[in-house]
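for the record, two folds in this file. i put them one after another cuz i was lazy. first one right below, seq on top, structure tokens after. the second one comes after a little note so u can tell where it starts
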Amino acid sequence: MSFEKIEAPDIYYLMKMPLNKKIRFFWLILLFFIIIFLAYQFVSPSGDWSCTHSFSSFQASSCLGDPTPKERVIKTQGGPLLILGEPVYFSVFSPRPFSHITIKITYRPHLSSSTPIFEAGFLADKKLWRYRLQPVYNLWLEQGLSSWTQLRSGNLSLFQRKEKFSSLSEFLSVWRSQGSSFCSQPRCLAVYNLSLEEAPPALDLRSLSPVSENSFFPYPLRGEHQFYIFLKNKGLSLSGNLLDLNENKDIDDAEIVVFSGRNQVDLLSLPDRRPQKEESGDIGIIQSVKIVNSDLPSGLYRLEFRAGDDLVLSDLSVNSAYLSIINKIWPFTEEAVSLVTDAPYLQVKALSPAALQTLDFGGRHLELTEIYKQYEIKSKRLGGENIRLSTGSLILANNGMFAASSSALINPDYPRLDRFSSLNEQLDFVLADYRPAIIEDEGWLSSTLEFDASDLYRERGKYSLILSIPGLLAEGGGGGLVEIKSINVEFSGPSLGAKIKDWLNL
């Protein structure tokens, strides 16, 4: 009875409340629910938050920005987004940083052998412009190897031209114990989307017989570069000079990191304490670079020169007969340049009119007439090729190695299954970390990608998403296109309560 006596006056009071007070009370209740809704939308106290953008409808996206550059896409009337050129970028809003991102893309690929790879990922390092990519669709793995025998365990697949192994575990055991020697011929294994730091190298290091014990790279190198070296004897000795161009606005800190497999074994930090002002164009004083580590055993090492485009590394010398530059090189000189590479193709870009020229690649000529345009040239041979430039300042790239001479070139990596791959008789096996596309209705496919977001770059509440189809050009050329129906992004991480406890050290 006491409960009824308490509640009845409250209801009676509300019924007798003046109209203006009723309106005020209503707005207070509405404001309370709006605050609760916004808390879940923009604070995400539960630790989970998601959004979906459908390009086939006119609904507004809760997190996805417009695709850029606009000339690489077409927004159809009530239809999918058409990607005609690559790469395409989206900003992705999140209410706060998260530790994990799951992205699901629904699409229809109209691709060819010149554009077989569709990948997506997020910006991880803005200074070096590094995106962390994962496969969305691979034409070779979905269709090109359909006649090969396939073994699968989880996301890992082995494709065999002729059946030699009865299980994936058998192959991995033989591969790890014998290295590449199980192949009937060199480089018969290609890989895709694999981290190979702990894998056996693609060459027998015991067979190396260096003709000398030192290498000197004759050309200055601008910006970030990676190298392979092989130490015949114990101890590393590296030296060089660092030059700051001061053309960009960022502070030009740099470092040289030494890896054995995936383990970091040495680090040289090169902070920017040079007095010249950024963006002034005043070239800084030469800074000496030196690493001496007598404790490193003989063996294969990977060096990373982590630097922005303002920095130039010159006079590089190392106590290794082998000094190979991995995948990309930017020789920064006005003099003629002579290089070798072990890949049968070359991608070339000039960033200034002074760098426009006609280059020679394996006896073939490529004329560069436009800056910022990426050119490509292919060789008919599978072996190494010579590169001759009348002047440097070109960015050269492929999935192979570059060196100043053939005797200095070493490549412990396996061939990558990329758009320049040839499924010829030399290739017997393909090992890939790949999740096949899911077939949806009306010919649509979907792929789900998982990302550790703890170290992804996020600025002003937004991540940067990239869709990449290497070789796809908006101006045409037979590369095809990709239709995007929808993109769903799911964020997850610690709840707000868990974060507060962490902050308070509870």
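(here's the note) second protein begins now
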Amino acid sequence: MSGETTGKQLRGWDAAAFRTANGDPSMRSTVVAMAVLDQSPDWVRLRSRLERLTLFVPKLRMRPLYGVVGFSAPRFSIDPDFDLDFHVRRYRLPENANWDDLLRDARRISLSDFDHNRPLWEATLIEGLPDGHSAFLLKLHHSIADGQATVMIALTLFEFAKEVNPDEPEPPPAPAGEDVSWQDVLIANTQDNLSRVVGAARGVLGTGLGFVKGALTDFETTFHKAIETVGSVTRATTVYDRPLSPLLLQRGTTYTFGTLEFPFEAIRRSAKSQGMSVNDAFMAAVMSGMQAYHVRHGSSAESLRVNVPISLRGDAGDRSAKASNAVAIARFPMPVAGLGVGELMEKAHELVAQWRAEPAMRLADPLAEVSWFVPVPMLAHAARASDVTTSNVPGPPIPIYLAGARMIAAYPLVATIGAAVNVTMVTYDGHAFIGVSSDDRAIKDHTELMQDLRAGFHAVTVLPDTL
């Protein structure tokens, strides 16, 4: 049995996401990318595009292989019974259906679990929206791709013109899968685990020798660097007992979706007027809205504990930058009480820059490996101590098409994964499309939350006019 047949074992962050999602329903880990189209795409052409996508992204043809012992991450190898039609579906909404009906269907799709013996993705075309519009929903397990990787996958699926491009590169041939026995999986896992132990030992030895060498040439600098790394790892792995919000205390296994749309140029102009980044303005808008929601309910939070993905793509010093999930998660308290959007921008800028520079961010995968020795209930408890997750993903700046239909909106709908609220923004064709998911126990009135978040983004977009 070849190594290609037994596939590769999930490692680091990908493996941790898979394990916690399987072990606790409140940690469900799905990403739904929802493209709103100006018309119904050609179904035959769309199905062909999806087939082509799976050839360029072979992980979409891979199913998990589980070890007999259980104390190891699953392996992913080509499914010998891969069937595109199992993953692709199409239906029409009832007559007079509206946007809320679409979001309810998106919620149901997100909350429905995958078949964990098949490739972990689904694609759904929903027709019958007002004005002849349709929606294409691509659902992925978070262990397959983060937000930026989802955009990369979408760019392989979508086209830059309404017409078929005859010059597109031909996809590779379909890979062949084989049945894999539990003995083959056991042997492959044993070999991988031994390699990891040897690699870890070499890494420790190399680090130790490097420390000794550094200590002999510049003891003070080497010593301070070692202390800094230990301190950084301690800060990154600290387990908190509860959220900082006095209001967002409960967590459940379901969540509700909402969407917002704003002109991207207004957000960018506002950030530039303050000497800040788009992400700073985005986080300020979210924090302003969250504080307004607290005030609405007669509460207040001095700070909120925020999860922010830190992209490692392009970081030559980190091998995880080539992974499906090339991110580390920074988790920190962000002051919100009594701060205007300009001050919130400054705080976001300062805190994200501080965490981006943390040595522990470059150790995300090794730290995730250690999580295998921590019971899933403890990991889930730690995740539920977060109040808000924010993520900002740049998308294509020009219009793109899917099987002859133009994409007019792109909403990221992401599971809360332990936090009370997840707010993700994707920029596309001059617009900022914002997807919001709120835990149904933590947020008692989703409509009020959306009103407050809308007000937060509005406050940011008009900021330059108020200076």
